[in-house]
Amino acid sequence: MSLEINGVRAAFGGLVALDDVSLTAEPGAVTALIGPNGAGKTTLFNVISGLVPPERGSARLDGTELIGRSARQVARLGVARSFQELRLFGGVSVQEQTMFAAERSVLTRSRESRARATEILDRLGLSAARRSLAADLGYGQQKAVSIARMLAMNGRAWLLDEQAAGLAPREYELFCEVVAEAKDRGLIILLIEHNLRLVKDLADVVVFLDRGRELVTGTAHEVFSNELVRSLYFGERD
Ligand SMILES: Nc1ncnc2c1ncn2[C@@H]1O[C@H](COP(=O)(O)OP(=O)(O)OP(=O)(O)O)[C@@H](O)[C@H]1O
């Protein structure tokens, strides 16, 4: 039971964004994808979530193939995804968009979605903002709404694209707590991060991508002390 990526290749015209990438994200663990800009991290999320068709390869969630399915089908199979640019419905209240996410989810029935949304907004400190439009909120709160929607979807796997970037200290702490709780519930968590402190704090496994290739996989300590990673990512030379 895991999210297994095998031999994924994806190209945009002549540009190979992912070149034979394989990795496994286990349940109850945080797997962090790191690497320089353009390494292919977001493209891998797009392949898993049905937004970019790969030329070849597979992505299996608990044995079920995700490649070839639409983004909606992948979401229904339990993959909840956040975007760097958040993609909230700006003109919809915080409560409503959390409920919409709950209604699209795998497990929650529509009559339960209001109670579920209320509980989630409480957990994320968004109760007072529940009637606000997402577009009227500050950046940190908009990011919390995007997490609220992921929680509401009740998925099996989370793909988090730079969710901690730009958060205030209290928001950052809350984000780490929510991820740790999801991990304790046995979710599969894959996250893209440039914030190395967060990677050290949260990641059980770190995968280093560079120019579309998975180069090093290990614990944060192993990956951050790897010479190749140090020269390609941290710009260190002998
Ligand atoms: N829709 C697209 N059309 C053409 N090229 C694309 C498209 N999406 C991504 N690319 C290219 O694919 C490569 C990988 O991009 P990707 O966004 O996956 O990298 P990344 O590791 O997520 O980078 P960053 O850390 O900057 O977000 C880049 O060279 C990028 O320009």
TrEMBL record:
SUPFAM superfamilies in alphabetical order: P-loop containing nucleoside triphosphate hydrolases (SSF52540)
Keyword Transferase: no
Keywords of this entry: ATP-binding, Nucleotide-binding, Transport
GO molecular function terms listed in the Swiss-Prot or TrEMBL record: ATP binding; ATP hydrolysis activity
Highest taxon of source: Bacteria
Keyword Nucleotide-binding found: yes
GO-annotated cellular components: plasma membrane
UniProt domain ABC transporter: residue ranges: 3-236
Matching PANTHER family: CONSERVED COMPONENT OF ABC TRANSPORTER FOR NATURAL AMINO ACIDS-RELATED (PTHR45772)
Protein name in UniProt: ABC transporter ATP-binding protein
Naturally occurring in which organism (per UniProt): Sphaerisporangium rufum
